[in-house]
Specification:
The protein has helices at about 15-25, 45-55, 85, 95-105; strands spanning about 5-10, 45, 80. It is mainly α. The chain has a single domain (about 5-105), classed as UDP-galactose 4-epimerase, domain 1. A three-stranded mixed beta sheet has the order 2-1-3. Helix 2 packs across helix 4. The two termini are about 25 Å apart.
């Protein structure tokens, strides 16, 4: 595995559904025929944190060999959705990463 230090914005699928519902219920907020939104949690989390959360949830003692392989050329090291446009309209995330990890594994 690489060092897994990439910081990425992960989102639980139920949060995507919650967000779509918010947009549909509040379409009056948006006065354009087309509006673009960045969808995500608005928080970038290091990939190695996700791996460690999964290990913890599984009660795993497996050794992850971080840094065993080099990162790919042009690896994206940071990606985070800017959700300010949505939060300014009253949107607030309902589900968190831990919810998604637990639901995925249980």
């Amino acid at each position: 595995m690489t060092t897994a230090k990439q910081q990425l914005d992960f989102i639980y699928v139920k949060e995507v559904a919650h967000l779509c519902s918010f947009i549909l219920k509040n379409s009056g907020f948006f006065n354009k025929p087309f509006e673009e939104f960045e969808i995500g949690s608005g928080k970038a989390i290091p990939l190695n944190n996700i791996i460690e959360r999964i290990k913890k949830e599984l009660h795993s003692t497996a050794d992850v060999d971080y840094g065993a392989i080099p990162k790919r050329m042009n690896e994206i090291m940071y990606a985070c959705a800017d959700i300010r446009k949505l939060t300014s309209k009253g949107y607030s995330p309902k589900y968190h990463l831990e919810d998604g990890v637990k639901a995925l594994l249980n």
